[in-house]
Design brief:
Elements (H helix, E strand, L loop, with lengths): L1 H20 L5 E2 L5 E2 L3 E8 L7 E7 L4 E9 L7 E5 L2 E2 L2 E7 L3 E9 L7 E10 L5 E11 L2 E8 L3 E4 L5 E9 L4 E4 L4 E4 L3 E3 L5 E3 L2 E4 L2 E5 L6 E5 L20 E4 L6 E4 L1 E4 L3 E6 L9 E11 L2 E6 L13 E11 L4 E4 L2 E6 L2 E4 L12 E4 L1 E3 L5 E4 L2 E6 L2 E4 L5 E4 L5 E6 L2 E2 L11 E2 L5 E3 L4 E4 L40
Parallel strand pairs: 1-5, 3-11, 12-14, 13-15, 14-16, 14-19, 15-20, 16-21, 19-22, 20-23, 21-24, 22-25, 23-26, 24-26, 25-27, 26-28, 27-29, 28-30, 28-31, 29-32, 30-35, 31-36, 32-37, 35-38, 36-39, 39-40
Antiparallel strand pairs: 2-4, 4-9, 5-8, 5-10, 6-7, 6-9, 10-11, 17-18, 33-34, 41-42
Length: about 475
């Protein structure tokens, strides 16, 4: 018993010895901080929309602790920014400590009510007790905008103006008998709002669904823009400028008719253009011209036929001229279940270094419907004209067809295609590099050494100008692709 007391007493003495010998924490009241960014930017925000939150990391890279006397917004109560530092909200934080070789976080966002069409500047100031200070600049650009959330259009004609941006959060539904007209220079920004379908699959909810008619008519100098809501950069400095899958796309349903997209840009969605079934009138269901469709998670252009009642004399599902479509997770152009499609002077391209393309080709075409047991449930008539087009990418085969016995008519002439097929007409250029100027930055113009120059065909489907409005042809024959070398 005495021995036990002796052991416990010794342990307590040792504990007291090491406790009193432990060096007290030292926090210097001046020093140098490092930051994850010298400027926190909110590149473009819209009124009526909640501000994202930006994160700033504040580093103490010295071997001693630092005590920051005060952290505050330079504009004080007049600031349009809200800040949380080290878990504490407020305009001013005092005696904030950072341990040696450690860091803390600041979270910054815009207040909910700010003036429109304005640039805002402020600074987050870090001041030490001796008066020394460091600062990080805060910047935000705020635009006024029209705001549509889950909107149904039923008027005979609805015109979207171009005097300020349009923010779409959820769907815009164009009802049968309704025409939506979008003016030159209009910019539509779609949110990344998601929902679940009846099978429990998540999908992007922001889209335009057209049961009526969409007329989006831009000009060469003032295109109509359909793009993602997120702009600039987010956490980890990730850019949203070329990020696919941030909104759904444009959906032209079976009932839709008389649609036209001219001089438009669609980017960073899931399916840029989805056209369901053949036309119900004597005119094409959808006319696409002088339009760029890029960075889509699934398809740039998706055509769905699946209508065995229509004859080969029916008008086309899609007529597309001067289209630049590039970078898609599946097919750049997917044509399934037959149908009728005309393509002239289009450039279709995709490379694996931008999106994963394990099984997809630039253009895929089928004419049937199968069930889960691989049994054919339907065979559908197909007519496709592809002329003066470039089909090029990182795969050895960029033109894949999977066809069963049914009425089929294919006109594939004067194209430049990457392919291993042996059945393509001699008028086509096979496996000759088109020599794009710089596809890595989206420049698909042709170099002057390109084999595609003056190798096209001139007929009623060939447009008289290129995607930039320049005269075609400039030489003895049209160039292949969307661009005409001048």
């Amino acid at each position: 018993m005495a021995k036990s007391k002796w052991l416990w007493g010794g342990a307590i003495l040792l504990l007291l010895f090491f406790t009193f010998c432990e060096k007290p924490e030292v926090f210097e009241t001046t020093g140098n901080l490092a930051f994850s960014a010298d400027t926190v930017k909110f590149d473009t925000l819209f009124t009526q929309v909640l501000s994202p939150t930006r994160r700033l990391t504040i580093y103490n890279r010295s071997s001693v602790g630092l005590e920051i006397n005060s952290i505050f917004l330079a504009r004080g109560n007049a600031s349009v920014f809200d800040v949380i530092v080290n878990g504490q909200a407020g305009m001013v934080q005092n005696q904030v400590r950072i341990n040696p070789r450690d860091s803390i976080f600041a979270f910054i966002k815009l207040k909910s009510q700010v003036e429109k069409n304005t640039d805002f500047w402020d600074a987050l100031v870090f001041q030490f007790a001796d008066g020394k200070s460091q600062k990080v600049i805060l910047y935000a650009h705020v635009l006024d905008a029209y705001f549509f959330r889950d909107t149904v259009l039923t008027e005979a004609i609805t015109v979207f103006p171009n005097d300020k941006p349009i923010v779409v959060d959820g769907y815009i539904y164009v009802a049968p008998g309704t025409t939506l007209q979008i003016m030159p220079g209009t910019e539509l920004y779609f949110s990344s709002r998601t929902d679940f379908d009846r099978w429990g699959n998540r999908y992007m909810r922001s889209m335009i669904i057209i049961d009526g008619t969409l007329q989006a008519i831009g000009t060469f100098s003032k295109p109509v823009l359909f793009t993602n809501f997120r702009l600039g950069k987010g956490f980890r400095n990730k850019s949203y400028q070329d990020e696919p899958g941030q909104w759904q796309g444009l959906i032209f349903t079976k009932l839709s008719q008389g649609n036209r997209l001219s001089n438009a840009i669609l980017q960073n969605g899931s399916i840029g253009v989805r056209c369901d079934s053949v036309s119900l009138t004597s005119e094409p269901k959808l006319v696409l011209e002088n339009t760029v469709i890029k960075n889509m998670a699934n398809f740039c252009i998706l055509g769905l036929g699946f209508d065995s009642t229509r004859t080969m004399n029916a008008p086309p599902n899609i007529v597309a001229t001067n289209i630049l479509a590039f970078n898609a997770g599946q097919n750049v152009v997917g044509l399934f279940g037959g149908g009728k499609y005309y393509f002239s002077n289009c450039t279709f391209s995709s490379f694996s270094n931008f999106l994963s393309r394990s099984r997809s080709a630039v253009l895929g075409w089928t004419n049937y419907l199968k069930d889960n047991n691989n049994r054919i449930l339907g065979r559908y008539p197909s007519e496709i004209v592809i002329q003066n087009c470039i089909l090029w990418g990182s795969k050895e085969e960029e033109f894949i067809t999977d066809l069963v016995k049914a009425p089929i008519q294919l006109t594939f002439t004067h194209n430049l295609v990457r392919s291993k097929r042996q059945d393509l007409p001699a008028s086509n250029l096979i496996n000759l590099d088109p020599l794009f100027e710089n596809f890595t930055v989206g420049n698909y113009r042709l170099k002057k050494e390109s084999s595609a120059i003056d190798r096209g065909i001139q007929n009623e489907l060939t447009p008289l100008v290129d995607i930039e409005g320049k005269v075609r042809p400039r030489g003895n024959a049209p160039d292949i692709g969307a661009y005409e070398v001048q």
